[in-house]
Request: fold
Amino acid sequence: MPQKYEKLKTLLKELLQLDQPDLDFGLYRIMHAKAAEVTQFLDKDLLPQVKEAFDVYKTADKAEPEKELAKVIAGVEAAGMDPQESPKVREERAKVASDAVDLAALENEVYDHLYSFFRRYYSEGDFLAKRVYKPGVYAIPYEGEEVKLHWANADQYYIKTSEYLWDYAFRLRPEDEQDPMRVHFRLVDAAEGEHGNVKAAEGKDRVFLLASHGFAALADGDQGQELIIDFEYRPATLADWPAGAAGKTKPPTQKDMAGLAEQRILAIEDAALARWIAELAKPHAKADGERDDYCRIRAHLNRYVGRNTFDCFIHKDLGGFLRRELDFYIKNEVMHLDDVENESVPCVEQYLSKIRAVRRIAGKIIAFLAQLEDFQKKLWLKKKFVTQTSYCVRLDAIPEALYPEIAANDPQRDEWVRLCAIDELKPTAGSLLEPGRPGYSVPLTTAFLKAYPTLMMGTHHFEGDFVARLLGSIDGVDEQVDGVLVHSENFQALSLVQTRYREQIKCIYIDPPYNTGGDGFAYKDAYQHSSWYSMAWDRIARVRPLLTPDGALFVSIDENEQPGLRQILNTIFGAEQFVADMVWAAGRKNDSRLISISHEYVVSYANNRQLLTERK
Reply:
């Protein structure tokens, strides 16, 4: 096989996720199911299709005329003549130069162009717009707008790492269908930290570390026995260093924790796990078969940590993006008008055949890639299941027939003690408790519940039957709900409420990450502002449909992204809907009393500024 063809195949296996045969979760499972189809295309269809594009030139293949030329030269030399002086030799050389086609060279050019094109846009699992061919040559989708806002990730969804915390699995023997030896990393405890709008406290960044005790065990899975390894996700402490690690003054970093996890796993002496540990201790093999200088468990620990440390993207229309980029690539990298103008007709035909081959083969590859990305896009946009719904209800809205069950519920009583200090309501001498009013007791009494009708009861403390009877006793529950709290990734939450709360919210306030470089915002490929734009754009675009016609949006930000935020809001709402930038100094002292270089902003836009003004 041609070397350039094999090079292209290696890249395509990476793009099509076939270079990770051991991974066994999410998209990788789907790719394992499609592996036979994709491998058929790469191994059996790709090469013949490229050759087919040049079949018409087989009669003019350069190899045959060159063989004939060699024979003529040999005959002339055998006759004792100088080949350079032979008219026959000159005639054959002219045929080779003008009529023959170097098919091998043309095929290699096609493979080269395909490799260059797909390599250019692919980076660590994402397709990014890196369309800089030479200084001054850059193109963006533009349809004549007065002002066009564009950024590197403009046509991609921003995906937070927290979406991937829960599932990571791989097979130690992927080729063995009977006993693949599946290993599953499971997160059993995650401390509250940076996610959505919740920022990690200073010095409290969370790391992945093995569960304290009993972190490894065998379990029955859908592919036979699998090894479960439990992890926690929390801020590290000095106590997380192993005994004997003296002189440590700071908690271990994530890199330290990966090394410590490797040591603990490989040190397991349980006989039932011996063959698993032996496999995990073997050197990690790369996709090309080359052995790394670290073991298999360390490779997967690094990958597990990495995929939950860096944010990623899903393309909104990968097929359209790559086809558009392919047209641009062909026009700028493959098609040269000077060649067309100055070459003979046969050479121009060969030239056009090369373009057709690049276009046709690239189109098939793009179709494969688009299927994968579109599937991920559907999963991302699909409305997520609501895993739990609970209500907070004032006691005076609950039928008294249910009070005995509420009074007997210890978790509800404990919550009231913690949040409302009801245990201090005791009718003792000198207390503020009204005479004759019942005080706290264990268990509570129905009289106590009647005496404090503003206490909020949480349905999450009760069984489903009780909750059903409670909700059934309240007419028009949905209309009486005066507040909704959604615990979710913000993009998914906004997508979920689009229909129910469309044009019903008068005022929306959001507090996105300020993108200071130290707020936990993970940048892909160092695209600091581009990543932030993608994150902000899709979420703000889902905010506007929720506003009433005279509603308004308020956004907190500082000087790092205030200019970019204004551009995004101008595009989504329209510049004419801008209301005001409310600005104040951020509280830092500067040398001058008259100048401040650090500010906080609340940027305000109206859904319809005219209606907002008329209402005032």
